[in-house]
Amino acid sequence: MANLADWIEGARPRTLPAALAPVILGTASAAALGSASLPLALLAAGVALALQVGVNYANDYSDGVRGTDEVRTGPPRLTGGGLVAPRVVKVAAFASFGVAAVLGLVLVAVSGTWWLLLAGAAAVVAAWFYTGGRRPYGYMGLGEVFVFVFFGLLATAGTTYTQALAVDGATWLGASGIGLIACALLMVNNIRDIPTDSQVGKHTLAVRLGESRARAVFAAMVLLPLLLGAAAWWWYPWALLVLALAPVGVVLARPVLRGERGLALIPVLRNTGFYEIAYAVVLGIGLVL
Description:
single chain; mainly alpha; Farnesyl Diphosphate Synthase
């Protein structure tokens, strides 16, 4: 029987910064464009968090019923670990998607950006079929595409658009950086699980690349966003502040490039989430200044 701590762990709190960071940067971009709104930012944050939790529970359910999580490194999953009946985890996933949908409906109604309903619906569908359905694209190495588009580009630029009704080039650069760091979160998680994922036919991008190349790609996903953020200098000179995070990025990439494995990568997963928040805050300050 699962307790509250198990459900919290099932929501994978280490991934939640990937939901908040684009909202922080998107709101800062809106402020730079002269039209930020705290209520709209809070609604966007609610949508992003609910969608992220829904994705995590959906992955727990789908991987669990497929048997993917029977042998894994890290905390036991709700479904795969036998802590909760699969149908209950599935209900939790769709309940989270429902919360995201309701908050998203309020957000587009207040901001008048009704066309974003289509984007929101696409996000929910993509979230489920990441590991759900007969041919989950996450098992084909395409999970990073979903993360980059929906937790990078759409989440950041969408937040800006609902507040400012405009998106400039600097926002797209920052959104790309946020998307890459979110992909780094997924990559380090999948690097940790390469041995077990290979055994059960889960061909993530990390599995397809192989361990050494996957580790190099993780480092690129961590460091390239700094250059993308700095390129926003063209619009906002203070965007160069983001380069101050370069030492942090190097420290973050070092254990992965050094070949750390298994449980030793869990702190890297957590710290990558903090790094994404720091990126959003520092670049956001640069845009506002």
